[in-house]
Amino acid sequence: LTSENAVALQEQFSWLKPRQFPVGPSFGFGDRIGLATPGHIRALSDKQVFPVVAQQSVRENARTGRTFEDVLADAVFGVFQEGYKRGFGADADHLKTDEEATEAAKIGYTMFTCDPGDHVAIVESFSAEEAETAFERLPDTEGYLHEYLDQEIRIEGLGTLRFALDDLQRTAVKYAYAIRRAAAMYNRLSEQLPTGFDYEVSVDETETPTTPLEHLLIAQELHRQGVQFQSLALRFVGAMEKGVDWRGDFSQFSSDLRAHAAIARVLGPYRLSLHSGSDKFSLYETFSRETAGNWHVKTAGTSYLVALEVAAQKDPALFREIAALSLARFSEDRKSYHLSADPGRIPPLEELSDLQLPDLVSTLDSRQVFHVAYGSVLQSALGGELRRVLEAHEEVHYHALARHMGRHLGALRVTDNA
Ligand SMILES: [Zn+2]
Description:
By secondary structure, the protein is of the alpha/beta class. The protein contains 18 helices and ten strands. Zinc ion binds next to loops.
């Protein structure tokens, strides 16, 4: 199961090559271990949703010691094993540099998610004078004034949006450099892939939720700079924590989403993309309805947790070692993640019977501890042991994945093919 052999298979069978997205909803089945694709395909059964079965970010690959090549090869073998011929996408996720993007393009990825988050300015604490000074220093101050200042921008289904000078200054300063970064990566990819590709821009890791005005400016500016993007990941209100359901003010979420969906429809249509989409069951129905099917959801950690559940059932001794390592690594591994887990609330492992172990995977505190420790576990000797258990019980693993990811698709109201 080498990447050379995956490429050789792809040359024989064109259905093993990732392809561009058709219209309609799409779902990202991230797989950090590399053994989940058959289970993901079974979750799809006959559902009308385009699957992205190779989807890992640069950060995930760094933590698991994999490459874009490994991730695609694992997905290709899973698709081949299941004989799934309806087509799939491959998403090189959270790309920060052009080099990362061009490397993934060479290997055959079809979707590129640009993360220009490091170039988003933190303007929330700026005074009006500071915002004005920073705005005057932008490379395209005149363009922004001409395009936006006091223009009445009519968005059907939302109303009229208008940038007063202070709004414009803050919004432009916040996103101008991120937009230029996203445009530069897009231009590099366009040269390399003249026949086309799918492009997502993600600004989902900002300090504050994206406002409709911010969304409007980001999308308009990307278009003005020639970027044909297919999806946009915004930061939504509330807590989008890893591996657990969303928490927050639901009526605020719904009304913001309605506004964002209206903008995406009028300026696109393009998909709204929900990142950290694992286990956000309370949002799915609204997300699917308000976007009228123009959505993309990314998951990854939840499939790793399914694998741990299988380990808890089939090899409790190994699971205890994984749990102990995850706890030991928590203070380090939690960095860069938004979490509310408190390891102090997790019962001592030695007090739990083997039958109680699977509950640890579903309880919030331990679930998040496991969720962020995937890199430490998969790069240790326990990673190989976990793979061995999953391979020995592959049908159990696939069945658990099909059930859990099937619940995601069901909650998103994905319909069956006629
Ligand atoms: Zn993201």
